[in-house]
Amino acid sequence: MTRPRPLVPRGDPADTVKVVGEFGVIGRVLAQAGTARAAQVGPGDDAAVLWTSDGRVVATTDVLVEGRHFRRDWSSAEDIGRKAAAANLADVAAMGGVTTALLVGLACPPDTQTSWLEGLAAGLAEECAPLGAAVVGGDLVAAAADSASVVLSVTALGDLGGRTAVLRSGARPGDVVALAGRLGWSACGLAVLRRGFSSPVAVVSAHRRPTPPYAAGPGAADAGATAMCDVSDGLLADLGHIAADSRVVIDLDRAALVRACLEPAGPLQQVGSALGVDPLSWVLTGGEDHALVATFPPRTALPVGWVPIGEVRKGGRTPGVSVNGEPAGDVVAAVGAEGAGHVHFG
């Protein structure tokens, strides 16, 4: 099929989705998509076809809404693409898998610049490329006439590579709680942006482009992790899911958390001092760094990149999360946080 040529050059203010048209935009976007190693049939047909050597497919979806999950005045199109991909790739890693492909659905206003969509596609491709994954399909639709917002839905498909999937429900009393990746950086960067600043660059960049430790997920599964999840809504909130599903208490070691996340002193302390905020609040309740947390059997040699931050105890009738034995709610109040983490519709 011959794709229509754009009626205006790239970069022209009139170079919008409405002018170029659906298939013209799709052609440009696919030029940025890259290639998925697992794709037998890639974009362009009614559906993609992927090789699945394991026989099982890990699947996860996230929806990102402009104004809630990203702002185009704060982040470039490439930033938003990388962030959208990272949220899904981290979920696959938290199951012990490796992402093989993405499907992307996008609703945008007709006056959206096609160059912005190309940047979004480039960001998605850049985040996926090191894993051998790529966007293999999706859908593009016009947003409602009265909407000026972009809505982005990303579905990730992954391969367990013969591993047993690591669930949230497997933690057992005596297990070691461990962390891979960094915490609090994205929340710190968000606090900076909300106040109209753009530095320190390190934390602002962490908010715009999180850096999940993708390889740590399969590594933890290979080492015998009993439960695992990524930290998307906040450490206390996400460990709360493991505690509830496993019917245990997860007790965090405050000193170990400080060593792992706040030493040596860096931009979190710098920004915290300037804003009058305890940086531990960002570590405990800040989301979107997409670090991984997992539980391991006692005396397990933790894989490279994992550090211990607590232990699992019997839950009895009240599973939950504590810090040095104090209930999470009390700790949240003590560090001045508004809650244990992000709550949709909250």
From TrEMBL:
Binding site for Mg(2+) 4: D46, T60, D91
Residues reported in the UniProt entry to bind ATP: G138, D139, R168, S232
Pathway(s) this gene product operates in, as recorded in its UniProt entry: Cofactor biosynthesis; thiamine diphosphate biosynthesis; thiamine diphosphate from thiamine phosphate: step 1/1
SUPFAM superfamilies, A to Z: PurM C-terminal domain-like, PurM N-terminal domain-like
Residues in PurM-like N-terminal domain copies: 44-158
UniProt cross-references to InterPro entries, sorted A to Z: PurM-like_C_sf, PurM-like_N, PurM-like_N_sf, ThiL-like
Gene3D superfamilies documented for this protein: PurM-like C-terminal domain, PurM-like, N-terminal domain
A single GO molecular function term of this UniProt record: ATP binding
Keywords recorded for this protein, A-Z: ATP-binding, Kinase, Magnesium, Metal-binding, Nucleotide-binding, Thiamine biosynthesis, Transferase
Sequence positions that bind Mg(2+) 2: D62, D91
Residues reported to bind Mg(2+) 1: T61, D62, D139
EC supergroup of this enzyme: transferase
GO biological process: thiamine biosynthetic process; thiamine diphosphate biosynthetic process
Record's function text: Catalyzes the ATP-dependent phosphorylation of thiamine-monophosphate (TMP) to form thiamine-pyrophosphate (TPP), the active form of vitamin B1.
Homology family: Belongs to the thiamine-monophosphate kinase family.
Additional detail: Reaction mechanism of ThiL seems to utilize a direct, inline transfer of the gamma-phosphate of ATP to TMP rather than a phosphorylated enzyme intermediate.
Protein name, per record: Thiamine-monophosphate kinase
Native organism: Blastococcus mobilis
